[in-house]
Design goal:
It is built from 3 helices and 3 strands.
Length: about 80
Amino acid sequence: MTLQYEIRPFRPSDAMQVRKLFVEVNQQLAPEDLKAAFDTYVARCLQDEFADLTKYYSERNGAFFVAHHGATGSLEEPCFLTAAA
């Protein structure tokens, strides 16, 4: 079975799922001795860039994209890509 994905620009309706995935991935990546540093990083990102991804990236001449599962409409890992213009 082949999975079909569509890469498309971020939509405000993606925000909750993108934030959730960002937190989960960083929790999995954090080595035991750096968990506090990762938690601080994640909290800062959620307050800054993740508060309004479209605005954050457009102000930097970039964009935020998601990989969208065509059949289910869900975002999948890795779900986000960023690109600067």
